[in-house]
UniProtKB/TrEMBL annotation:
Organism: Candidatus Arsenophonus lipoptenae
One GO MF term: pyridoxal phosphate binding
Record-given protein name: Alanine racemase
Organism lineage: Bacteria, Pseudomonadati, Pseudomonadota, Gammaproteobacteria, Enterobacterales
Catalysed reactions, as listed in the record: L-alanine = D-alanine
InterPro entries found in the cross-reference section: Ala_racemase, Ala_racemase/Decarboxylase_C, Ala_racemase_C, Ala_racemase_N, Ala_racemase_pyridoxalP-BS, PLP-binding_barrel
Length: 360
């Protein structure tokens, strides 16, 4: 059995970045490429974007080092900063910028003597309550950062929107923005709060830097919408192929547990995709796969290496025919809707068994 392939369209990646550039004329763009660029391949995406994006944001120090070891010279921000003092020499050597979000990090920076100044972004918790300093404690800590000899001045300031998908989205975002604006008032340095949702919905949140993730990959940050609603191009086509075509009689079950029983004679196709590839095991019967231009429903349980689809009694599909799991004509947001797993997660959790290929 051949492996499924995730085809990454580099022109779509570039196109989406340029779309963002059109929306945020006055801001710099930090392309977020954490988690293997949302499953699209960290290094390849960085190479595609290095002349288009002003900087990159990653979650893990290993991701930043991988970029530096491969001649990516754009600014790189480590979105949660460092945890251990031992990471600092590596961070300095590789010229990685860091988010400061916990008092422990400040204490470490006050204690050691670095070879070079480090560029930091102080994170303010404006309502996400995940990382960052509470506004009421932030002023004092801001002063400590200013006094810290290892740190480049001025101090940059960052926060993050918590809502992508709820009613009340706008109210909560504006409360966060208010809170952020109160803190940054009369402070020098660069400021950033907008991820994809802010870029698309709230122009006043754009500030000095925007931090698009999901938009780069052509998908929507907002629930109920698709990338194309915002003029974006899906960058990934995940495809596999049919490995068997079977006659199936009414009344017969399919797959583990026999949870789906056909009420009609039909033709079943077996597609080489399963949870071992990262396809969600909870995808219910009815989740579509695109075969020869038709959306056909999966039936029965997804297994490790394969999934059954109902091709219909008069189908002409053949073994070897392509099966598109998601892509341009079957947006990943649609699979998210069927499975209840966000498209962020679907893209990110493909396993290493899926080959990634790059095309124009
Ligand atoms: C992941 C992340 C982003 C990008 O978010 P999208 O919704 O994918 O645009 C931006 N900023 C931070 C701090 C992040 O962790």
């Amino acid at each position: 059995m051949k492996s499924p392939v995730a085809v990454i369209h580099s022109n779509a990646i570039r196109y989406n970045l340029l779309q963002i550039r059109k929306i945020v004329v006055h801001s710099r763009i930090m392309a977020i490429i954490k988690a293997n660029a949302y499953g699209h391949g960290l290094l390849e995406i960085a190479k595609i974007l290095k002349d288009l994006a002003d900087g990159f944001g990653v979650a893990r120090i290993s991701e930043a080092i991988m970029l530096r070891n491969n001649d990516i010279t754009n600014p790189i921000l480590l979105l949660a900063g460092f945890v251990n003092i031992n990471e600092l020499p590596i961070i300095i050597k590789n010229e990685i910028d860091v988010v400061i979000q916990d008092i422990k990090q400040i204490e470490i920076l006050e204690k050691i003597k670095l070879q070079k100044l480090i560029k930091v972004w102080m994170k303010i918790d404006t309502g996400m309550h995940r990382l960052g300093f509470r506004p009421e404690e932030a002023e004092i800590l801001y002063k400590r950062l200013i006094e810290c000899k290892n740190i480049q001045k001025p101090i940059n300031i960052i926060s993050h929107f918590s809502m992508n998908d709820k009613p009340g989205l706008h109210d909560i975002a504006f409360q966060q923005l208010n809170c952020f604006n109160n803190f940054i008032k009369n402070k020098l340095g660069e400021k950033s709060i907008a991820s994809s949702i802010g870029i698309l919905l709230w122009q006043i949140s754009h500030l000095d830097w925007v931090r698009p993730g999901i938009m780069i990959y052509g998908a929507s940050p907002q629930e109920g919408k698709q990338g194309k609603d915002f003029g974006l191009l899906p960058a990934m086509t995940l495809k596999s192929y049919l490995i068997a075509i079977r006659k199936h009689k009414a009344g017969e079950p399919i797959g583990y547990g026999g949870i789906w029983i056909s009420d009609h004679d039909t033709t079943i196709g077996i597609v080489a995709i399963g949870y071992g590839d990262g396809y969600p095991s909870n995808a219910p019967s009815g989740t579509p796969i695109l075969i020869n231009g038709r959306k056909v429903p999966i039936v029965g349980k997804v297994s490790m290496d394969m999934t059954s689809v109902n091709l219909g009694i008069n189908s002409h599909d053949k073994v070897g025919d392509e099966a598109i799991i998601w892509g341009d004509l079957l947006p990943v947001e649609e699979i998210a809707k069927h499975t209840g797993i966000s498209h962020y997660e679907l893209l990110t959790k493909l396993t290493s068994r899926v080959l990634i290929k790059y095309q124009e």
